[in-house]
Amino acid sequence: MLTHELFSSDTHQWFMFGRDESKPEKIIDTNQYMIRSPGNALLMDPGGIEIFSSMLASVVKQVPINQIKHIFASHQDPDIISSLGLWDSALNGTKLHAPWLWEGFIRHFGMQNIEYAPIADEGGCIVLNGVEIRFIPAHYLHASGNFHVYDPVAKILMSGDVGAALEAEGAPLEVGDFEEHIPKMKGFHQRWMPSNDAKNDWIRRARQLDIQMMCPQHGRIFTGDNVGKFLDWFEQLDVGTAIRKV
Prior knowledge:
single chain, alpha/beta, Metallo-beta-lactamase, Chain A, six-stranded mixed beta sheet, 25% helix, Flavoprotein, Metallo-B-lactamas, ODP_dom, RibonucZ/Hydroxyglut_hydro
């Protein structure tokens, strides 16, 4: 599994884990993220059960396992959180920050030691080494209870399935030519994002943030001008296309 440092400062670092060559062939590729601060780490959308061993091996190269005090799950899908039961066996004194709506469902993945810390619909935050990490509402994109993670110091938005792309093996880590990247995103967003109203509510929130890097759960990272290009493109995209419009 690839480990890539996205940001580093005196207070904290961001890492991406992904492009796992050892994952089963029919398992969709996922990006996992972590914020590391002195003595404390936040692991975001830590992945499915099938990639747990690769994730654990990659994570412990960057932080002692007893310093992972926070996990974040943007929603309930198995590709981001079905590994919970295995993390639960490996961690102590850790909180899982996830939408309040999904607690009864997420617990089905196994949870004896980790404490569930429900996020209210309006969002919330945690503080890591003096940096306020915010949970930004992204409801219905694509789950009915859904959040993203924003770091105002690093100016990074971990955007879950928003911005996701279905990529060929060996794809670059970052979006280069935005127009060339659109076909890899379009079908996914039209089918998996069910509501134009929800989409536009999220775009309004996103435009209020200073985002220099947008990091989705699948595919490439958006940097610089490509963040704004994505917001403009997504705003005009008609979603929820499985519903026949009469």
